Amino acid sequence: MKKGQFDSHILVLVTLGLTAFGLVMVYSATSASAALGGSDPGFYLKREAIYALIGVALLMVASRTDYRALRFLAPVLILASIALSAAVLAVGEEVNGARRWLGVGSLSFQPSELAKLSLAIWAAAYLARRPAPRTLGELARPLGLTTGLLCALILLEPDLGTVISIGIVLGAILLVSGTPLRVLAGGGSIAIALGLAAIWVEPYRRARIFSFIDPWHDAQGAGYQTVQAMIGLGSGGPFGVGLGHGPSKVNYLPEAHTDMIFAVIGEELGLIGTTLVIAAFAVFAYAGLRVALRCRDPFGKRLAAGLTTLVCGQGLVNLAAVLGLAPLTGITLPFVSYGGSSLIVSLASVGVLLNIAGHGGKTSAQMPDRSRRDGRSRAAVARRRGSTRSTRRHGDLRRVAGSRRGAARS
User: Fold this and answer.
1) Angle between helices 203-213 and 181-201 (to 10 degrees)
2) What are phi and psi of 326, to 5 degrees?
3) Which long-range CB contacts under 8 A does 194-198 form with residues at least 24 apart?
4) DSSP for 319-368, written as a single string
5) Of 275, 336, 295, 363, which Cα lies nearest the Cα of 7?
6) Nearest to residue 49, comparing CAs of 20, 6, 80?
7) What is the mean pLDDT of residues 189-214?
8) Containing H/E element for 391?
């Protein structure tokens, strides 16, 4: 097996496995309630299957397209994401009091999902050609301002969960780029402070925070979703009640097919099923980070780290919320939860990651890495050192030969 193929095979198997498993769980979480309501039990399955086909097609195209072309498209992508995030506030479809979707015929698209991918590409491209920020002032311009504008538009939808995902992705790219930890800590503290302010000004966000602290205090109100998720997870035991036999998804657990699908998995497949899902994301993170470590291209290295964090970081936030370890944020579980925009963007991201795995290790090491202060590549420095040692050896040999000739004349 060629170098890099092992990581690619792991990424493909885990991604397609989770996507197929997600289709099964979406059908399990929606078919019973739809049948009881007189609707089509396969409605959500059919829609999710269409999104999965579109996503797999994009994965194949992205895996065969040179990822370095994205470096030149980065400004267009980030500007398009900002424009779409603004447009959704004006003409977007309102669902449950939030404007997050743009309608395209019978389908809908969530611009904030594209924004996460666009920001990862733009930040990786920017930091690949410039030194990593070493002060808060350098971090603010233009990374902080651009990210802040995009996050402000998404907060107005409102969608705090996506803002958290964007912050995690940007932090990972900055870390790989060589940003000092003190700068990351300072920027993170400012972001957390702004996030707490955004939570405090919205009553429903404050209610989520208080319900997270003690969900059983208002088990029939603000803490209802968290309590029902815990009951579903606890009811599964080691092996679960059986696929399709969980009662909580029918009349008790809100958003069972989107945010809370992990609770359905725990109830129907038990501790074994939930452990396998967590293990799958851990394997994905291992393979994705190996791709980032092997890549010689500065842009590819940063982008691979960002895309891996985009998938696994979002999964970690969702799992923490369902398990009651973090407040509810509305973030879906990648590849598994119902959601067309999330599934398409996640599969396209994996396609780019596969292309980096196949071509990132072949990129010439002569390309300068701007995270180094001198801007030189490591391979070039090694060759200069090697040539210096070679020159020294030749000089020693010439001196020894000269001393021998002098001894012979005497």
Assistant:
1) 110
2) -150, 160
3) 195/160, 195/163, 195/164, 198/155, 198/160
4) HHHHTTSS-------TTTSS-HHHHHHHHHHHHHHHHHHHHGGGS-TTS-
5) 295
6) 20
7) 83
8) helix 378-409
Give the residue carrying structure tokens 């040999």. Answer: 397
Query: If you search the block for the tokens 């997600």, which residue do you land on?
Result: 22
Asked whether the predicted pLDDT for residue 1 surpasses 80, the reply is no
Is the bond preceding 142 in cis, omega lying within 30 degrees of 0? yes
Q: H or E segment at 388? A: helix 378-409
The amino acid at residue 309 is T
Q: Considering only CA atoms, which of 371, 346, 307, 393 is closest in space to residue 56?
A: 346
DSSP assigned state of 230? H
Name which of 351, 343, 272 is nearest 314 in CA terms.
Answer: 343
The most distant pair of C-alpha atoms in the chain lies apart, rounded to whole Å, by: 113
Mean of the per-residue pLDDT values of the chain: 85
Q: Residue 299, SS3?
A: helix
On whether the CB atoms of residues 277 and 22 are closer than 8 A, the answer is no
One DSSP character per residue, 166-213 reads HHHHHHHHHHHHT--HHHHHHHHHHHHHHHHHHHHHSHHHHHHHHHHH
Instruction: Quick: pLDDT tens for 219-268.
Output: 888 888 889 999 999 999 999 999 989 888 888 888 889 999 999 999 99
Residue 108 parent element (H or E): strand 107-109
pLDDT in the model for residue 374: 41
Do residues 85 and 150 touch, judged by C-beta distance below 8 A? yes
- Tokens found for residue 187: 């920027």
Write down the domain spans for the chain: 5-376, 378-410
Residue 254 tokens, joined: 């809100």
What number of other Cβ atoms are within 10 A of residue 90's Cβ?
7
C-alpha distances in Å from residue 409, one per residue of 332, 397, 401: 87, 19, 13
Three-state DSSP class for residue 2? coil
Instruction: Provide the 8-state DSSP code for 397.
Output: H
Nearest one of 297, 395, 396, 373 to 132, comparing CA atoms: 373
